[in-house]
Amino acid sequence: GKKPLRQRVVDELKHYYNGFHLLWIDTKVAARMVWRLLHGQVLTRRERRRLLRTCADLFRLVPFLVFVIVPFMEFLLPVFLKLFPEMLPSTFETESKKEEKQRKKLNAKLELAKFLRETIAEMAKRNKADTG
């Protein structure tokens, strides 16, 4: 059934708290990585990707904070997320959104693979016709 309004508000506040907490942890880890970079150490591929993701999240945080700070603006957040799906920092995404995003990426990769397979088959037919 539908949750009471109080429970939904509490759940949203917990979601924001957890998102900011995770972003804070990512920021601290990224600061250590930058410190290591400045002292001449090399980052692994995984560390580099995490650093880039954290930097992108910090840049995305600025427009997101407008929705959190301005009263009643959070009601417009779903509209803006529909228009700009990548606006939300990664630490604020729910599991269902992450799974949906992975599904879309997989479908796009499958479509690309199908297109490339058809293109190669067409090229093979042309080459066979040219040589025949």
TrEMBL record:
Lineage top rank: taxon: Eukaryota
InterPro entries xref list: LETM1-like_RBD, LETM1/MDM38-like
A Pfam entry, by short name: LETM1_RBD
Annotated GO MF terms: ribosome binding
Gene: Letm1_1
A GO cellular component annotation in the UniProt record: mitochondrial inner membrane
Protein name stated in the entry: LETM1 protein
Domain called Letm1 RBD: residue spans: 43-128
Keywords from the UniProt entry: Membrane, Mitochondrion, Mitochondrion inner membrane, Transmembrane, Transmembrane helix
